[in-house]
Design a protein that fits this description.
Elements (H helix, E strand, L loop, with lengths): L3 E5 L17 E5 L1 H13 L10 H9 L12 H16 L13 H15 L4 H14 L2 H14 L11 H4 L7 H12 L6 E3 L2 E7 L16 H4 L2 H13 L16 H22 L45 H20 L1 E3 L5 E3 L6 H9 L13 H9 L27 H18 L6 H4 L4 E8 L2 E11 L29 E12 L3 E8 L3 E11 L10 H4 L4 E10 L2 E8 L6 E2 L5 H13 L5 E2 L8 E2 L12 E11 L41 H4 L5 E10 L6
Parallel strand pairs: 4-9, 8-18, 14-16
Antiparallel strand pairs: 1-2, 2-15, 3-4, 5-6, 7-10, 8-9, 10-13, 11-12, 11-17, 17-18
Helix pairs in contact: 1-5, 1-18, 2-5, 3-4, 4-5, 4-6, 11-13, 11-15, 12-14, 13-15, 14-15
Pfam family, one: Hemocyanin_M
Keywords: Signal, Storage protein
GO cellular component, one term: extracellular space
């Protein structure tokens, strides 16, 4: 059993909402038994494509009698999943070395079976033996996917840290020429590399696809769309709420998952639009299924098996005969969604009507659009986004069912690299706005906080720059495995890990910003509890025209949010960007993480557990758009609202020091609609009239690293 020593470092000032990283100043330190498990978990992801890499893991795989181990799983339905997985194994799993995509129905069903078996394993030993078996016998991509989702959703594994996705499989994140250079160093016996502490070490410069070839203007912001932190965030957003996972057991519906699905994508689009404006690109283009897609994409990525990620030419003809069936499906689904939004209800197969006309119905609509298991209807409304991504990715139809070569759009780790991703989700988010257009505008009473007046907002100078970040890509090379000796490793014990003889890193340039603070000065006539929201939005469009508030409301990005106890009289609320809610810092590399785990295990130092690198947060580096050298005008919007408690008190049922609380129904700080008050059409006369809201003009300056 895991035990922890708890240290309270101070009372939490704010309570989280937004990107929904728990906000707490508590820290816990891991005990030895927990660190033993953490070490073993990390090793499952090391040298993923070498099944014989570690002889002890090989022994676990070969000695685990999967077919005869049904009693090791917790629920009777899972025994059936175990039998189903074994049947897949006997009759043909996706072979190792082939490319896994969760968008492939056969791949997905096999991955779900493995996830179910891992999720319901009755204890740590069973879980680990199943994982070791799967690492050896199951396709590499499928193994990592199922294991990641299982660790994310098992309550007894809260707090465990997984390696960053870009370190597990650099092929989805790092350009081909960098991977090739890393493999050349290995093939040439590490020639030209320096030894540091007995380990061959080298750092390879890495760039974005735009430097190699210019296909269109969209590549001006490849530094943003190809950012490894941004793409990791989106991958984890999916593993928290997979479109195929739901039901009472997992509790995802308690998290307003449908509303969250739409709002997260709306916020991604808003943040993306701010970056486009910083590069003079303007609005996100729209597309038609019946005309050529103007935006091509050359991903410059290569799978482990040597196949390149499919590229899409500019003015790609999507309406090809091979796509006719899928296009008809998507067009039908899109029309059905538009129709039910406008009519305000839809009808189930049994004739029952489901209301879509109340503010709370946005959750129902989101589930319907995502077509997840928590949706009311699965026959008439299906995976609009999934089919669109498959069609637009321009992948070639495979000869054999298992020999697929998915596009970047068909992986959650790489989808945001492709500019068409944002065009697809602009179309999806349009349903969100269409629904909101049918709701009444917020009244003065719904916006007003009696007795509270914001007197002013002061913001530090906002400055962005590009800095350097080294990514451990050692998993992209094969190393010599230790030989497996039958009978040497009996029983279940600590994994023996022989450190790699080499560490290879790719040095990338990423957008970052100088830390800044803002201060809200306000007056309250009595002590009260308030919810504070801060948004960042554009002031001018791409042509230099001043935006009207109503046409601009969908472009505001939620920058910060917190709960605050107000005192009677003057209040000054000071917030530092380092502590904004919903953001996380860069992930610790495998090398450093493993070193810290072992130092904690031996007692040399304490291994700290907190949410500073939580998987469910947006990269802190990317909270501000690049801006321009001479300054680019934006505007902050601050609103202080009466606190409205959520249906379930925040942090109920989970430990916010260890967990993001997915499936708890207790992740959110209040009960306001996501995006309030920009989520509905705006009556500008009322919006500007309430004293508890404030607009503040700001400028964002982009500087070179040397200038800072």
């Amino acid at each position: 059993m895991r035990t922890f020593a708890l240290f309270v470092l101070g009372a939490a000032l704010a309570v989280a909402s937004g990107a929904f990283v728990p906000s707490t100043s508590q820290v816990k330190y891991a005990e030895k038994d927990w660190l033993h498990k953490q070490e073993d978990l990390l090793l499952l992801f090391r040298h993923l494509y070498e099944k014989d890499w570690n002889p002890q893991l090989v022994a676990y795989a070969k000695n685990f009698h999967f077919k005869e181990s049904a009693e090791l799983f917790q629920h009777e339905p899972t025994v059936q999943w175990a039998k189903k997985l074994w049947s897949y194994y006997e009759h043909g799993l996706l072979p190792k070395g082939e490319v896994f995509s969760v968008y492939d129905e056969v791949h997905r069903e096999q991955a779900i079976a493995l996830f179910r078996v891992l999720y319901h394993a009755k204890d740590w030993e069973t879980f680990y033996k199943v994982a070791a078996w799967a690492r050896y016998y199951v396709n590499e991509g499928m193994f990592v996917y199922a294991l990641t989702v299982a660790v994310t959703h098992r309550a007894d594994m809260a707090g465990f840290v997984l390696p960053a996705p870009y370190e597990i499989s650099p092929y989805h994140f790092i350009n081909t020429e960098v991977i090739q250079k890393a493999q050349q160093y290995k093939m040439q016996g590490y020639y030209g590399m320096k030894k540091v502490d007995g380990v061959y070490t080298v750092t390879i410069p890495s760039n974005y696809t735009g430097w190699y070839m210019h296909t269109n203007a969209e590549q001006k912001i490849s530094y943003f769309t190809e950012d490894i932190g941004l793409n990791s965030y989106y991958y984890y957003l999916h593993t928290d709420y997979p479109f195929w996972l739901g039901g009472e057991l997992f509790g995802l519906s308690k998290d307003r998952r449908g509303e969250l699905y739409l709002y997260e994508h709306q916020q991604i689009l808003a943040r993306y639009y701010l970056e486009r404006l910083s590069n003079d690109l303007g609005h996100v283009p729209e597309f038609s299924w019946w005309t050529p897609i103007a935006t091509g994409y050359y991903p410059d990525l290569q799978y482990y098996n040597g196949h390149s990620f499919p590229a899409r030419d500019n003015y790609y003809h999507v309406d090809q005969e091979s796509n006719y069936r899928e296009i008809r499906q998507v067009v039908d689904y899109e029309k059905r969604l538009r129709d039910v939004i406008d009519q305000g209800f839809f009808v189930l197969p049994d004739g029952k009507k489901v209301n879509l006309s109340t503010p709370e119905s946005i959750d129902v609509l989101g589930n319907l659009i995502q077509a997840n298991p928590d949706s009311y209807e699965h026959r008439f409304y299906k995976y609009v986004a999934m089919y669109a991504r498959i069609i637009m990715g321009a992948a070639i139809e495979p000869v054999e069912p298992y020999q697929v070569i998915p596009s970047a759009l068909e992986h959650y780790e790489s989808a945001m690299r492709d500019p068409v991703f944002y065009q697809i989700y602009k179309r999806i988010v349009a349903y969100y706005h269409q629904f909101k257009e049918h709701l009444p505008e917020y009244t003065y009473e719904e916006l007003y906080y009696p007795g509270v007046k914001i007197d002013g907002v002061v913001v530090d100078k906002l400055q962005t720059y590009f800095d350097r970040f080294d990514v451990d890509i050692t998993n992209a090379i094969d190393i010599e495995p230790e030989p497996y000796v039958p009978g040497k490793y009996e029983g279940f014990g600590e994994i023996e890990y022989k450190p790699d003889p080499v560490v290879i890193k790719a040095r990338t340039m990423r957008l970052n910003h100088k830390p800044f603070t803002y201060k809200i000065s306000l007056t309250a006539d009595k002590p009260a509890k308030a919810a504070v929201r801060v948004f960042l939005g554009p002031k001018y469009d791409e042509y230099g025209g001043l935006y009207t508030l109503n046409e601009n409301r969908e472009n505001f990005y939620e920058l910060d949010y917190f709960v605050q106890e107000l005192t009677a009289g003057k209040n000054v609320l000071t917030r530092s960007s380092v502590n904004f809610n919903g953001y996380v810092k860069d992930r610790t590399s495998f090398y450093e993480l493993y070193r810290s785990v072992m130092a904690g295990y031996t007692g040399a130092e304490k291994f700290q557990l907190d949410m500073s690198e939580a998987h469910c947060g947006f990269p802190n580096r990317l909270m501000l758009p690049k801006g321009k050298k001479g300054g680019m005008p934006f505007q902050l919007y601050v609103i202080v609202s009466p606190y409205k408690a959520p249906q379930v008190s925040q942090y109920t049922g989970f430990d916010p020091v260890l967990s993001c609380g997915v499936g708890s129904g207790a992740r959110y700080m209040d009960s306001y609609a996501f995006g309030y008050p920009f989520d509905r059409p705006i009556d500008e006369k009322l919006f500007y009239a309430v004293p508890n809201a404030f607009f503040q003009d700001v400028s964002i300056y982009h500087k070179s690293e040397g200038e800072l």
